[in-house]
From TrEMBL:
<feature type="binding site">
    <location>
        <position position="64"/>
    </location>
    <ligand>
        <name>substrate</name>
    </ligand>
</feature>
<protein>
    <recommendedName>
        <fullName>Ribulose-phosphate 3-epimerase</fullName>
        <ecNumber>5.1.3.1</ecNumber>
    </recommendedName>
</protein>
<feature type="binding site">
    <location>
        <position position="33"/>
    </location>
    <ligand>
        <name>a divalent metal cation</name>
    </ligand>
</feature>
<dbReference type="InterPro" id="IPR026019">
    <property type="entry name" value="Ribul_P_3_epim"/>
</dbReference>
<keyword id="KW-0119">Carbohydrate metabolism</keyword>
<comment type="pathway">
    <text>Carbohydrate degradation.</text>
</comment>
<feature type="binding site">
    <location>
        <begin position="167"/>
        <end position="169"/>
    </location>
    <ligand>
        <name>substrate</name>
    </ligand>
</feature>
<dbReference type="InterPro" id="IPR000056">
    <property type="entry name" value="Ribul_P_3_epim-like"/>
</dbReference>
<dbReference type="Pfam" id="PF00834">
    <property type="entry name" value="Ribul_P_3_epim"/>
</dbReference>
<feature type="binding site">
    <location>
        <begin position="140"/>
        <end position="143"/>
    </location>
    <ligand>
        <name>substrate</name>
    </ligand>
</feature>
<keyword id="KW-0413">Isomerase</keyword>
<feature type="active site" description="Proton donor">
    <location>
        <position position="167"/>
    </location>
</feature>
<feature type="active site" description="Proton acceptor">
    <location>
        <position position="33"/>
    </location>
</feature>
<dbReference type="InterPro" id="IPR011060">
    <property type="entry name" value="RibuloseP-bd_barrel"/>
</dbReference>
<dbReference type="InterPro" id="IPR013785">
    <property type="entry name" value="Aldolase_TIM"/>
</dbReference>
<comment type="function">
    <text>Catalyzes the reversible epimerization of D-ribulose 5-phosphate to D-xylulose 5-phosphate.</text>
</comment>
<feature type="binding site">
    <location>
        <position position="64"/>
    </location>
    <ligand>
        <name>a divalent metal cation</name>
    </ligand>
</feature>
Length: 213
């Protein structure tokens, strides 16, 4: 499994250094949670901050837009250096148009699903997507508990050949369930940034065997 540390759990006073620290610790991607205090009840950062930390790593930027109107901001995040852009199926923008805009700008489009959204809702779009992001917590905050029933969605998506990322409550134990379900990418905030040794935490999650290295 690939591991994408979520910068939501980093020290925001030194985002650039924290990003470089994750690269040194062996992260595969850098996950950036953009929240607008409308689609979700929390407010984080926008494209200028993503652009400001872009020079600190060569790792792919995996930008998760938890915003009501993703299409309106796609160009800003493309210019800021996003490599993968996930937007929510439950948001207000046209799914087809948003996918098209992301791909036309040279990035990889992904659709994210809130826990209550049935997996069937994303199946018609799979051929146009590079990834599906299955939320394993209600989007908005780090530090919540993993929703194991979401692994049924992962199994369905894998049966359709999708590339699948999960996000929320990933720790050495829940990474085992993710790996067994066939997850390709785990996003992890708390369990990486609050670990005494981020490199060991990332290696442990990647193994997905429940054995803390
Ligand atoms: O998108 C989100 C929350 O909305 C996630 O990326 C969390 O930030 C993951 O944090 P942990 O659950 O790993 O602490």
């Amino acid at each position: 499994m690939l591991i994408a540390p979520s910068m939501l759990s980093s020290d925001f006073s030194k985002l650039g250094e924290e990003t470089a620290r994750m690269e040194r610790a062996g992260a595969d991607w850098i996950h950036l949670d953009v929240m607008d205090a409308h689609f979700v009840p929390n407010l984080t950062f926008g494209a200028p901050i993503v652009g400001a930390i872009r020079p600190y790593t060569k790792l792919p930027f995996d930008v998760h837009l938890m915003i009501s109107e993703p299409l309106r901001y796609v160009d800003d995040f493309l210019k800021a250096g996003a490599d993968i852009i996930s937007f929510h199926l439950e948001a207000e923008s046209s799914v087809h148009e948003t996918i098209r805009a992301i791909r036309a700008g040279g990035a990889k489009p992904a659709v994210a699903l809130k826990p209550k959204t049935p997996v069937e809702a994303v199946l018609p779009f799979l051929d146009d997507l590079d990834m599906v992001l299955v939320m394993t917590v209600e989007p908005g905050f780090g530090g919540q508990s993993f929703m194991a029933p979401m692994m049924d969605k992962v199994r369905t998506l894998k049966a359709h050949g999708a590339f699948v990322e999960v996000d929320g409550g990933i720790n050495p134990q829940t990474a085992v369930a993710a790996k067994e379900a066939g997850v390709d990418v785990c996003v992890a905030g708390t369990s990486v940034f609050h670990a005494p040794d981020a490199a060991k935490a990332i290696a442990t999650l990647r193994e997905g065997k429940g054995v803390v290295l």
